[in-house]
Amino acid sequence: MNDAVIQSDTAVRAELTIDGRRLSYLDFGGTGRPLVALHGHLSEGATFADLAAALGPEWRLIAPDQRGQGESDRAADYSREGYLADVEALLDHLRLDRIVLLGHSLGAINAYQFAARHPERVAALVNAEGPAALGLDGSNPFGFLLSLPYDAPTRDALIAGLGPAAPYFTDRLRENADGTWRLPFHPQEMYRSEDQVHGDHWADWTATTCQALLVHGTKGVIPAEQVRAMVDRRPGTVSAELDADHLVYTAAPEAFAAAVREFLATVPPAEPRPAR
Hints:
The chain is an alpha/beta fold. The chain has helices spanning 49-55, 80-94, 106-117, 155-162, 187-197, 202-205, 224-233, 248-251, 253-264; strands at residues 3-7, 12-18, 21-27, 33-38, 59-64, 99-104, 122-128, 133-134, 151-152, 174-175, 181-182, 199-200, 211-219, 237-245. It has a single domain, classed as Alpha/Beta hydrolase fold, catalytic domain (Rossmann fold, 3-Layer(aba) Sandwich).
């Protein structure tokens, strides 16, 4: 495992290598308590820049580009075990013993499943639009991805190939070393990743009792009855409803940051774990 560091205006971009695969992350710095933020599908760690600014300097936000997205390399698989192993490798690399773990959508499910397997490493959870059960009918909302190109000879050609989906991704297209252009994720791989995040995850959601905040949008993907059950069935959980769609932290950034900041104020400093 090795690393490289690139300084930017707002954060340090660094990376570690896991079995030959590069995992990139942004560290927004500071001396505050560590908070690791996991984005959802078709996104990347940079989308947490506003939240990092809102929570600083009390909190040091670290946001990886999850496997196959942003600046991180594509992976051989997108299994639950693979995503969780990446989180563990990142924490070990940064020598972070116990953290607050925040996630959105895919990232939220990764966060509470990681906590279920490593409760000693998670002091508190922030779940933004991460259901305890989803996709049980076998449907996949990412069917539109299957017709999208991954790359093209020019930026204009890639935008043309994306068609109606282009406005959602044009500000995040990447230029390759050879001058060709690509999306910051492979469409077919994200379709498969979405398939593999589906399931009944109630056992993982209720496996821990650390403090948790469930943030859901009025037009989000978690049904109202499931929101109530997620709060009722898991001790230590509170909820915050925002007037937003599934993309709560980018659709309502100020309200999201305020809800998270209020919750974090109730989380006591983590006591160090006994030496192993």
